[in-house]
Structure formats: structure tokens, C-alpha cells
Amino acid sequence: MNLHYKAVEITSKLTLEEKCKLCVGKNFWQLYGIDSLEIPSIWISDGPHGLRKEVVLGEDIFNSKSEKSVCFPTATAIASTFDENLAFKMGKSIGEECRSKDVAVILGPGCNIKRLPICGRNFEYFSEDPYVSGKIAAAYVKGVQTQGVGTSIKHFIANNQERYRMIVNSIIDERALREIYLSGMEIAIKEGKPWTVMSAYNRVNGDYCSENNVLINEILRNEWGYRGLVMSDWGGVNNFRKSHKSGVDLEMPGYDDDYYKEIKGSVESGELSQEIIDKAVIRIIELVLKYKKGKEIPYTFDLQEQINLAQKICEESSVLLKNEDNILPGNRKQNIAVIGIYARIPRIQGLGSSEVNPIEIDNAYDAFIENGCDVSYAPGYSLNENKYDEKLLQEAINIVKNKDIVYVFVGIPKEQEWEGLDRKNMILPINQENLIKEISKVNKNLVVIIQGGAPIEMQWSDLCKGILLTHLGGSRSGHGTVNLLLGYKNPCGKLCETYPISLNDCPSMKWYQNKNEKYKESIFVGYRYYDTAKIKVKYPFGYGLSYTTFEYSNLIMKHNEDDTVNVKITISNRGKRQGKEIIQVYVSCLNSLLYRANKELKYFKKVDLEQGQSKTIKFNLNRDAFKYYNVETHNWQVEGGYYKVQIASSCEDIQLSKLIYITGDKVKTPDFKHKSPSYYSIDKKEFNVGEEEFISIYGGKLPLIKDNIRPFTINSTIKDVESTFGGKLIASIIRKKAEETIGNDEMLSMMVNENIDDLPFRTFMMITRGKMSRKFVYGFVDFLNGRYVKGIKDMMKELKNLKE
Ligand code: BGC
Question: Is the pTM of this model over 0.70?
């Protein structure tokens, strides 16, 4: 029997209490099971660049331990391979690992758009471009799911910053929402068919994503036809009635309390319909049935194979940014200096929920030695970025003198790439920049290797001859990096996000740092902005060098009656060794009535070529390649006119192009030229969008959220309530408690200090791993709202229960 019908049948046998139990986690990672109906309690775990199965739950979220697993390069890296096959293989390997540890669903991939280069979780996301994000995510999802394990595409949607992440209201005009923020998810969900989707913490246009009927019920389910389960992000449900009505099926996590009884009460009182709960339960049971069926699929788990794959992804994702005088590849026989602590203690992943406990970590220094290199090493700088250490610097300078080549390993410090925090700037720590400067004075043969999952400013780039970006490269980044530096492998990754010259060049930075985050730049995100506004960047989207050279030729386009376009090009390797080129296809609409990006990526392909080899690449562009989202008809439409199809090696390096005429849909194209001129003159004057202009493209009054609204709710933050006596008292207790928990941990204290004011009360249960119970938090909110007796009674009762 089809799993859906089976799920319907099982649901019909459940009592209301059993149904409600299924709608909320049993604990942090498991769902409730129902033994009598052979519904096991399935396990859900974090990832997604490796499995993070927590086995020992700590006192609080910072203390838990997870089982060891292979740490793959993070999302930034996998996207930079531009290789769907590799993303599929990585997904498949992680699926195998899940099978070996009996995990039913891995929480990922993260498919949010990199809107701000400083977002603390950018390393977990693929790209600033929705097409690459969607394609790579879909491949990863398919890979995992071939193993009978589910995925959870996250965070649905517009979770583009960590500042205020649990409360921020992302205000996005409909066109940008569709073309930028939803469109990658749409590709990933329609092509990848993830078993689950995770709603984001933030609000979009006034409503929490977990209470957003338009996003979940209307777009995801009705329009895209998504049939899977939607779960909340951890602690992301504000009002479970609203969440269920908006299409969230499962609230995570749970605390083994009797919370489900509240859901049951709501159904009994008619506040929530039985039908909504039934639908949710059917999806939850269907998920469990998929898991059970998945267990029948044979799988293998070969650790060495997995580790080799992690290394391959590191090699294929690293981007050669600069190679003056062909300083690279280096040579094993050279007299080598390796400088920088990251050469021995590499940054391989970011911090937060995605952090895996790596089964293996190698490093570049050891890999040089294994290759028989004559290497002198010095750490060069202290990891305490504020500490300027003259002794370390001098030691490095003494070593690099008279060396044939100097490899300096630098990187973004780990405390800057952390879930919950955005970076404060985009520069390397001063002591690392200074090291590059001082070394360049004594040795010109300088190659800088950058570890990090997000862009940095590189004012120092003229001081070195070579730059290799190795991202957060996972368990085998050491060998991967050295293979590239010594030329055993040829770099073939390209940037999946722009590296601007300065953070100030990024338009969204102008309006960042607000709880009402107005996405005034609209569709002009990443290269869509820099390229259209003609802002010079350090390294453009799609850029990356190779040790060989490629030639593009013979562009042939056949335009069919149904507006599909068959495209054919030849790509040849003209250099002296094998290499891989990533061909990119951008489409530009000439003479549009809309404000439009100068170019949009519509296709990419990685091609492997032996020395002297040529290959013909064929692909089709369909009408979708020319579409835009029409905010008047609320539909995708094609504007009639000439389009330029450009075959490129980066978004700035167009190799071949041709014009074609596309017949438009018979619909008026909305024109905002008079009301919102800034969007149209983006290449002529500084891009500074006035409030009225944004209101005009938004289509009316902005859905702003007001601070300090009473009555307080479980969603109010410490800051919101600090104006009351009770609030002040509680805030000081919480701060004190946090300080005690943190002890001397600098990183934790930074995170807590920055975030504590903005934490909604609902997250206290999660942070304390359920010790602070839901009822306690409700009692606390009652107390703040002046229902002193009830509040205190409820809180005391909970404290008493805790003691017992
Ligand atoms: C993160 C999710 C993660 C979940 C479970 C949340 O804080 O936003 O990405 O999957 O926690 O750890």
C-alpha cells in the first residue's frame, strides 16, 4: 500500500492524545513512538556537513557531546565546486553515516541566501545566488535520501542574519522574496523532494515563519505541491495554534513534559481543528514509514572512502584567487617556510549546531612533511586576535629569509563564524594582516592560504604572489590544500559569492542591524548588485583560476518556437595539464521596463579536460531562464524583447555571447520608474533607497513590529521587559546565571552578552535543556503582566516539581 494511505489508516486508529503527542518532540532529538502500532520513536540529528548525533545531553546546549563522524567541507565549499555530482556523493555519504547510527532525518542543508557577507552562519549556506543554491542543495538532498534517510531543508525562509535571529522581522518586497529568497528553495524542494522542511526563526513581513500561512500553506504546499512534513526550528514556535494553522506539523524540540496535553486541550475546545491535527499526524507517520522502508535499503559505510571524499571536495572547492608569476604550483624540492598556526591547527568548520565531532583532522604542515618536503615552521601570530606578539612575528621573519617559497596560513577566527553571532567586520585579525605585511618585506615569494567560510577584505593582496582560498575544508583539508599547492591537483573551484573590496560596498549593510530589517536592496543581492551598479569588487562571483588555461569557442544557439533555446559551445584545454573549468551562463534582458540585474545565472557546468582536449557542451534554456516575478499579477512572467545569453568563466568574464528575441507574455510589465527611481539608476548614482521608494515597491504600508508591546508574551525579550521591576530582577538573575555557566570562556561570554537581551523567553526551555519548564516560563510571563499571584504560584509549583 502507498505510504500515504497507510499513514491515513494508522492515523485513523490513534486516540486524540496519541495524535497530539506525535506533533511535538519527545525530547531534543526524538519523536514519540507508538509501540502498539509499530511506530518507532525516530531520531533526528543535526548536520549537514557531517552527522552531529548528540549522545550525551549536557546541562545546557553548550555542554553536549556528539558521536564522532567525518567532517566534510561546509556548504560554502561544496557550492564552490559547482559540481552537483560531488554534492550528491557527499549527501550519499552522510546518508550512509546516518544509517550506521540509525538517524532518520538529518537537519539540513541550509539553503538561505548569503545576503550579508558578515552573517555568522554564511559558512552553512551555499551562495548569494538562488540558482546555485537550489541546484547544489537538490543534489545533496537526493544523495542523502538514496540511503533511505530524510533531509530537512532549512531555514524556510529569509534567515539571512544571526543578529536578532529569533525575533527579527525581515521586510522583503514580493519580487525579491520570489526571485531571490524563495527561488533557490523552490528548486531544491521541487527537484530534491526533501522529506522535511524546517521553518526559520525569523519573521517575514510581520509574521513568524512558523506562523506564516502565506509561506507554508499557500506557497510551499499549494503552489509548489510540497507533500512532506514541516517542522519548526528548535524553539522557533511562538504560538502552537497559529503554527499548526499555518502548516507546521511538528514542533521541536520537546522536553518530555505533558505539553501535548495543551494541544489536545486546544482541539477539545475547538481552537484547533481536528482536521489540521490529522493532516499533521498523517505527515508525521508518513515520515516514520519512509524511515522504516528506508531501513530495507542495503547500505555500506566505508570510513576511508568517506575521508577520501572529504579530501576530494576540499580539493575541488578551493579557489585559486591569485597566481602572479605562476608562483604556484610550488615544488616539493623547494626550501619551504610554512607560517601560521592554522597550518597546524586548521579551521575546518564553523561553530554552532552544525559542528561535528570530527573522526579525523589532518593539517597542512604534516601533509608537507609526508610529501617529503623540507619545511621550516613558525606559528606567526597568536589566536588571541587582540594580542600582538612581537616574538612570534620575529621568529617567523627569521625563518622566511632565504626560503624559496613562503606559505602563510591565515583565517577567520573561529569565534567569528558562529551561529548566533554576525561578524563585526570583514577583515582578518590585525596580527595576521601584519604578519603578511612584515613577511612580504623579507621574502617576495609569498603565498597566502585563507581558511574561512565567508568573504574577507584583502587590502594586503598586492603584497603576495599567490592566494588560495580553502574555505572551511573539513577532516582532510591539510592534504587537500597541500595537494593543490604542490600541483598534484589542479585548483578548480570558483567563488559562489562575491568578495567585495570593502564591507561598505555591500548595499544591505546600509540598513542592517534593525529588528525590522528592511531588505531595501530588493533583488540587488550579491553580484546582481555589484555587476549592475558597476561597483568594482575584489573577486567577482564565479571567479577562480587554474594551473591550465581554457578557450571557449563555437557558440551555437537554436531558438525553437516554444522559446526553448538549444545552446552548444566548445571548451578546450589550451594549457599544459589536465584541468576543470566551470562554465557559467548568464542571461541579461535588454531594455526592460523593470529594474533588473545586469546578469542572472541560469546554468553552470563543470567540465573535466585533459591537456589539449576539447569538449562540446550542449544544454537547453527554457522560458524560465527569462522570467521575472510580476507583483501585479502575482505570477511569473516573461517580458518580450531582446536578451543576451552570455557564456562566461566568471560573472565579469564573458567569453561568448549572442542575442535572441523572446516573445513576451501578454501582460503589462509593472513600472516603478517614477515612484522608485533609485532602483533604475543604480549604475548612475549611489544606491540609497528612500523610505517612500521602498514602500512603493513593497506595495503599501510596511508591516513594522513595535518594541515593548504589552501584554508581554513568551516571545518578549529580556530587553522588552526590563522596564518593569520584575523584568529587571529576572534579567539580572539570568545574566548572573549565564556568567556562572560560562566561566572564563571568552567566546561564550561574547555570544551570550550580545544575544541575551534579545532572547525571547520561549528559548529558555531550549537553552536550559528543559530545566526551565514551559509552565515556569508561562508563570513568569503572567507575573510580568501583573497577574502576580497566579504567576508566582505557577512558578513555585514548577520549582517544587523540579526539586522532587
Ligand atoms: C538551528 C538549526 C538546527 C537546530 C537544532 C537551531 O538553533 O537554527 O539549524 O538544526 O537548532 O540544533
Answer: yes
